[in-house]
Design goal:
InterPro entries: Cu-R_lipoprotein_NlpE, DUF306_Meta_HslJ, HslJ-like_sf, Hsp_HslJ-like. This protein is an alpha+beta fold and 275 residues long. Helices cover 19% and strands 37% of the residues.
Length: 275
């Protein structure tokens, strides 16, 4: 009887030891690898700011894109489809980081690309699945961080606007493209101290009114002469862009017009008003 009892006790001790060894092995094998805690784009880069670029477009000359990322993880996205329409498309919302802290997703963008890889002073637009775009145009899906004029618009607290009057402002760029015309045929605009403007649109003269408050600027409906022109399309685009302006900057001898806080719609250089 004692011998049988000893066998039972020995058998139970053997089972207990096996269970402990198996449990210990499973715990060690099932432990997930520790997540990397090193630097990533979210915690190591100065990512907040305004990013600008012209992205490829299937049925237009390019999509002029401005994406502003704010420290509170909100964003503003602005697009202009070059060569197709002057209309400005804007959206705002929240964005989130992926678990690795390298990519962001714009949560309000449901009908198009919404993910970007965050790099040093750059954003790389990703495809609909969150992967880098491949092919011949792969290197063209970049937005570059802006640090001069656009940032100045966001941070300026000076309510005294630079003077616009007493100068003839000759057009140099339209939607980021240098003006391809003779200086004598380049559009220009002049601001009067009486709240009136006058200018040349490339073929026709125009007049109208304007209002300023700080860096805010708006134009009233304009009247133009009605000459037929070979540059009618460019002239029409110039006048339409003027009507959409709502703020401006003056730096040295350069004047730039903006809508909201997008890239400059129009850029001018100061000339003597008697030119």
């Amino acid at each position: 009887m004692k011998f049988q009892l000893s066998l039972v006790i020995a058998f139970m001790l053997t089972l207990t030891a096996c269970d402990q060894a198996t449990s210990s092995g499973q715990t060690a094998g099932a432990a997930p690898p520790a997540l990397a805690t090193g630097d990533n784009s979210e915690n190591a880069l100065d990512w907040a700011g305004s990013y600008l670029g012209v992205l490829p477009c299937a049925d237009c000359e390019g999509i002029r894109t401005t994406l502003e990322l704010h420290p509170d993880q909100t964003y503003q996205l602005s697009r202009v489809y070059l060569g197709k329409s002057d209309e400005l498309f804007q959206s705002t919302g929240q964005f989130e980081w992926d678990h690795q802290g390298h990519n962001i997703r714009l949560l309000a963008e449901q009908d198009g690309p919404s993910q970007y890889q965050v790099r040093e002073n750059q954003l790389l637009q990703l495809d609909m699945t969150g992967k880098p775009i491949t092919g011949d145009l792969a290197g063209h899906y970049l937005l570059s961080k802006q640090s001069a004029e656009l940032q100045m618009l966001a941070s300026s607290s000076d309510d005294s606007a630079p003077s616009l009057t007493g100068v003839r402002w000759q057009l140099q760029e339209m939607l980021g493209n240098p003006l391809d015309t003779e200086p004598s045929k380049a559009p220009y605009i002049e601001f009067g101290t009486d709240g009136r403007i006058s200018g040349f649109a490339g073929c026709n003269q125009f007049t109208g009114g304007y209002e300023t408050e700080g860096l805010h600027l708006s134009f009233k409906p304009m009247a133009t002469t009605e000459k037929a022109c070979l540059t009618a399309e460019q002239e029409s685009q110039f006048l339409q862009l003027l009507q959409g302006v709502d703020n401006f900057t003056v730096k040295d001898n350069e004047l730039a017009f903006y809508k909201a806080r997008t890239a400059a719609l129009l850029k001018f250089t100061a000339l003597d008003s008697s030119t």
